[in-house]
């Protein structure tokens, strides 16, 4: 049995801001995907995945939440039959590895599930997000539900606020020189410790004001520019956002990348920002000249996400 594929996701804009109810934009990233599989695979990876699915099943069973209407007996039977999540999505990299698992389980085992073929009203999106939030909390302690939502629908999602979501379209890619790319920090990041740092910082009034005055404003401007194809304005706002993140989110940026981050801002050759919660995993890059950025960053693994 090979289940349907569920893709990774990239939160282009909105990391941390969406916790505080500002805008976000998440897009599917089809370079990585996973599927539920029942097989005779006895590799360490398959055994580990099966073990995690067993623990996830116990969590879902204990939830006893009527809004999560899953056929748990079928899920248990398949897990006992050596089902695992066969995935190329890197874990701890900020691209939604646990979100894809949640989406796959919901897709296969939910009764009366909401599907992408329906008219996806705001109420349906919020209902799905709430279900996914409860399910994915098993992996992160607290989840917005956005990663599984993006993976399940495989559509760009615009977050206007936590109670206002919409599936959206993004401008089609062009064969231009500019690009959005991923830079591999070659470190695994953990979401929970980074979120804890952020929540502690939010106790400081100056930090809260900065989030409202600068971080949320630049994020909102970047999203508007991106969705409307205002590339020149976008790079100006991404630069401002990159500066704010370097100044105020240093603990979320691995130490070895502080100088690289600063160099991008000073040279205007590329701008870096967090991809997810930070602390490792991928760093998101924006450049008006991808070939030049590739040469400057030749010591790092880059992956192309989107062309301008």
UniProtKB/TrEMBL annotation:
Keyword Translocase: no
Residue ranges occupied by any GHMP kinase N-terminal domain in the UniProt entry: 82-147
Pfam families per the UniProt record, alphabetical: GHMP_kinases_N
Keywords, comma-separated and alphabetical: ATP-binding, Kinase, Nucleotide-binding, Transferase
Keyword Transferase included in the entry's annotation: yes
Coiled coil: none
Cross-referenced InterPro entries: GHMP_kinase_C_sf, GHMP_kinase_N_dom, HddA/FKP, Ribosomal_Su5_D2-typ_SF, Ribsml_uS5_D2-typ_fold_subgr
One GO MF term: kinase activity
Entries under SUPFAM superfamilies matching the protein: GHMP Kinase, C-terminal domain (SSF55060), Ribosomal protein S5 domain 2-like (SSF54211)
Protein name: Mevalonate kinase
